[in-house]
Amino acid sequence: MAAHPISSHSHNAADLAAVLTNTNTTLRNASLLSALALVQQLPAMFVEAEDQRPVLEMDGDPLAFSHLIPIVDMSLLKSSDPAVRASSVADIAAACEKFGFFQVVNHGVDESLIRRCETEAHTMFELPLDVKERVHRPPGTSFGYGANTWVNQTVMHWAESFHMQLHPKSNIREFSGKLFAESDPTKFSSTVEEYMGQIEKLARQLLELLTEGLGLEPTTFNHYVENERMMSMRFNLYPPCPQPELAIGLRAHTDPHLLTILHQDEVAGLQVHIDEKWITVKPRPDCFVVNVGDLFQVLSNTRYKSVLHRAAVNGTSKRLSLACFLNPPLSATVEAPPELITAERPQVYRPFTWGEYLSNAYKFHPAMGGERHERFFLERS
Predict the structure, then answer these.
(1) Residues 6+ apart with CB under 8 A from 247
(2) Contact by Cβ (8 Å): 243, 30
(3) Phi/psi class of residue 134: alpha, beta or left (left: φ > 0; alpha: ψ in -120 to 50)?
(4) Domain edges within the chain
């Protein structure tokens, strides 16, 4: 295969801006997503800046870095020995303080349900583009089908995505009805709703465990996930890329959310920034990958870390991930509790609402100077 000339980043930005300013969402998505079907040449707008290109190392021991992103056996939390349970809670807290990421096994989510949800996701992505466009994601909105685009990005992600919401008001059955109008919409919607319901149960359990790990009563933050809570999921599909060494599936970012619970298939791609290195999280079918979002970093007064991560692509296999996000109501005020504010660890962030934070979250690239967080620092006299 002939090497594709690497366009300048400024040229990429100009090309991408021309596409993103197209107010016809259908044409815009078509122009971006049809490129994913190319097999020989990477379009210029997908060529990542040289210093941002990921390297996907898959050789060697697949568990070589398991010690960096701990795997927690949740069955130990049910132990009759208080010391065993306390040790597991401490392991989770330590992982969130150091890495912002951990993995869980024996999590209680039905394995067959995970497989069924993955099957439905693949079925959706395999629909013709004109059918997927029935649920297209208009500019400036969060839910529906389309390309992952950020306000300030200068390169296109090599991926397509579908974002749905279960709470506070589900749009899953509406989307399913449009996508599968010619078949059986309930098969998709019932599977997705059941899956998200089990993930939400797991997320609430983890929320209490992480809260306990801070030395607080486990229910301290439960009011954030009661009435009008927000629970959403994004399917991400990363097709084989003709020149994966030049592209990015999802650029480096932190999640603005409270908690993210991710299931990735057997194809590697998730990378986490640890100790100034990018570490590939080796897929394990029995694991969920859990990471702290910006909101939990705020609630913990920075004890827990919201850490940069990204998605790499490869040239041979498509990759699917299912990412679920737990969040408070838009009107909820986010503020660290007084127990976590001390002379040694003064309050870092001012109080703000989740809606206020969300409206700013994707306007500032978190890998470019931390503007997202800095806008909410507490002003000191």
Answers:
(1) 42, 46, 47, 48, 53, 158, 241, 313
(2) no
(3) alpha
(4) 13-374
Cis bond upstream, residue 168 (ω within 30): yes
How far is the CA of 179 from the CAs of 56, 120, 130, 146, 323, in angstroms?
34, 12, 10, 14, 20
Task: Quote the CA–CA distance of 292 and 261 in Å, as a whole number.
Answer: 9
pLDDT of res. 27: 62
d(CA 297, CA 34): 38
Partner residues linked to 105 by β-bridges = 73
- Verify whether residue 319 is a known catalytic residue: yes
**pTM, rounded to two decimals:** 0.90
Task: Give φ, ψ of 72 to 5 degrees.
Answer: -105, 125
What is the distance between the alpha carbons of residues 96 and 170, in angstroms, rounded to a whole number?
Answer: 30
- Residue 106, CA distances (Å) to 103, 149, 177 in order: 10, 35, 34
Name the CA dihedral angle for 371, 375, 376, 378, rounded to a multiple of 10 degrees.
Answer: 110
Residue 267 identity (one-letter amino acid): V
Contacts of 299 (CB under 8 A, 6+ apart): 221, 258, 334, 335, 336, 337
Alpha carbon distance 324, 231 (integer Å): 7
- The token pair that represents 86 in the structure block: 């306390």
pLDDT tens digits for range 276-307: 889 999 999 899 999 999 999 999 999 999 99
DSSP strands (E only) in the chain: 71-73, 101-105, 144-146, 160-167, 230-238, 250-253, 259-264, 270-274, 277-280, 288-292, 309-311, 319-327, 333-334, 352-353
Q: Return the structure tokens found at 67.
A: 């010690």
- 169-205 pLDDT, tens digit each: 999 999 999 999 999 999 999 999 999 999 999 999 9
The helix (H) or strand (E) run that includes residue 63 is: none
| Residue 128 main-chain phi, psi, to 5 deg | -60, 150
Instruction: Single out the catalytic residue among 319, 345, 350, 380.
Output: 319
Instruction: Determine phi and psi for 12, rounding to 5 degrees.
Output: -55, -45
Q: Are 162 and 127 in contact (CB under 8 A)?
A: no
The encoded tokens of residue 289 equal 């990958």
Look up the CATH number of domain 13-374. 2.60.120.330
